[in-house]
Design a protein that fits this description.
Layout lengths: L3 E8 L9 E11 L5 E5 L4 E8 L3 E4 L2 E4 L3 E4 L6 E5 L2 E8 L1 H7 L4 H4 L3 E3 L13 H4 L6 H15 L6 H11 L7 H8 L3 H12 L3 H19 L5 H4 L7 H12 L3 H6 L3 H13 L12
Antiparallel strand pairs: 1-2, 2-9, 3-8, 4-7, 4-9, 5-6, 5-8, 7-10
């Protein structure tokens, strides 16, 4: 692994966007001249990323992109493998309410997919931001304001806001243990819960619950240096073999294989996010 340095900065979206975005974040990655680093992004909500400098090679599920300046992805329950060199990156994460207000495609259709945002019809509306966010001569504050202005112009009124918020609030409850309990906490029938989850969250309720449980475990492990997987496992896992199977499902490798690899960007980002923003991963953010 070449020498590298990662610096993250998080910007709180204005109150008018409450519940729409995980955060607006800026990341500076410096890698020794000619070098690249690789990592695996964990499962997350949908997002758009703009690069000024090196552009990534990335793969998510059966989809891949090769060096776009504007990369986009739907919600994921799989890892995103990427390789990149020195760059300045802006990222915007869309919560389910944000998907409802900004994206005109059902989330399940774009789940576990990555693409060149400038070429994909669902994300092309954000492409004008690339000229601003990919220009290293424009300062961070001006770029942040450009993101806010663009989102103000694109946000659409919706009728399902409160249902989405209720589902999201129920989903991040660490005590949730069954789909029927999930539906009850959200104040919906099981069938209505399934429709809302498919349309705006990207996955069936049971898979979303499994992803939450897994992400709580993964981020706990990453934030406790020198910890063991057994210490990080969520209390809803009944035995280690179950956790190992889930790890293979969500990260495409075993826990031991993951622990043996370097995670130069993700580890630094998770630690900075937890220290500055609160929750260490966007899937653990509360809806408002």
């Amino acid at each position: 692994m070449p020498e590298y340095k990662v610096r993250s900065r998080f910007f709180a979206p204005p109150p008018e966007f409450d519940g729409c975005f995980t955060s607006f974040y800026h990341l500076d990655l410096t890698v020794e001249v000619g070098g690249t680093i690789c990592d695996h992004l964990q499962p997350e909500w949908a997002g758009i990323r703009f690069m000024a400098g090196s552009r990534p090679l990335a793969q998510l599920g059966e989809t891949s992109v090769e060096r776009p300046r504007f990369a986009a992805s739907g919600p994921s329950a799989l890892p995103t493998y990427f390789e990149i060199g020195s760059t300045r990156l802006w990222g915007v994460g869309f919560m389910p309410l944000g998907w409802c207000r900004f994206i005109d495609v059902e989330a399940k259709i774009l789940a576990n997919q990555t693409c060149d945002g400038e070429r994909h019809p669902a994300f092309a509306k954000f492409a004008p931001l690339a000229d601003i966010l990919c220009d290293p001569e424009i300062d961070d504050q001006a770029q942040f304001e450009a993101i806010c202005d663009t989102m103000r112009g694109l946000m659409q009124p919706t009728r399902n806001d409160e249902k989405i918020r209720r589902v999201h609030r129920a989903l991040v409850d660490e005590n949730l243990s069954s789909v029927s309990e999930f539906a009850k906490e959200a104040g919906l029938s099981t069938r209505s819960l399934e429709r809302i989850c498919s349309r705006y969250f990207g996955f069936a309720p049971k898979l979303l619950m499994r992803r939450q449980r897994f992400m709580r475990s993964l981020t706990t492990f990453m934030l406790r240096e020198g910890s063991k997987w057994t210490d990080a496992m969520d209390e809803h896992y009944h035995y280690q073999a179950q956790f190992t199977r889930e790890f293979q499902t969500f990260m495409g490798m075993s826990p031991s294989a993951y622990a043996s690899k370097e995670h130069p960007i993700l580890t630094a980002f998770v630690e900075a996010r937890a220290r500055i923003w609160g929750p260490p991963a966007q899937t653990l953010d509360k809806p408002a």
